[in-house]
């Protein structure tokens, strides 16, 4: 009788095969989601870097244009 009680108690400590399979399936799904998130994070990081490079190029062009306009202004002022 005591042996059956101990056996019943031990069975409550460990999940059944069906519960174990459910947990296993959830862990697999979570692993897939984490992998998907890692891929998306890499894409976002790459896109952010590309955007930063484009912003740097636009700033460079703005400075070059401002210099060109300033030089044109000096040349125009000397002719008058």
Total domain units: 1
Structural class: mainly alpha
Taken in chain order, the helices and strands follow as: HH
Helix tally equals: 2
Strand tally: 0
Pick out the low-confidence regions.
none
Q: Can you summarize the main beta sheet?
A: none
The average pLDDT value, as a whole number, equals 88
Rg calculated over all Cα atoms: 34 Å
Tell me the quaternary state: single chain
Roughly what fraction of the amino acids lie in strands? under 5%
Q: What does the secondary structure layout of this molecule look like, with pairings?
A:
Layout: H1 2-13, H2 17-79
Brief write-up:
Helices cover about 95% and strands about 0% of the residues.
Keywords:
single chain, 80 residues, mainly alpha
Q: Can you walk me through this structure?
A:
The model has no long low-confidence stretch (mean pLDDT 88). The protein has helices spanning 2-13, 17-79. The chain has two helices and no strands. The relative contact order is 0.04. The longest helix has 63 residues, at 17-79. The chain is 94% helix and 0% strand. It is mainly alpha-helical. It is rod-shaped. The protein has one domain (15-79).
């Amino acid at each position: 009788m005591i042996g059956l009680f101990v056996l019943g108690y031990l069975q409550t400590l460990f999940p059944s095969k069906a519960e174990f399979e459910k947990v296993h399936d959830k862990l697999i799904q979570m692993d897939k989601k984490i992998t998907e998130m890692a891929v998306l994070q890499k894409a976002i990081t790459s896109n952010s870097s590309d955007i930063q490079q484009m912003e740097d190029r636009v700033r460079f062009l703005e400075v070059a244009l401002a210099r060109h306009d300033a030089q044109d202004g000096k040349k125009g002022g000397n002719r008058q």
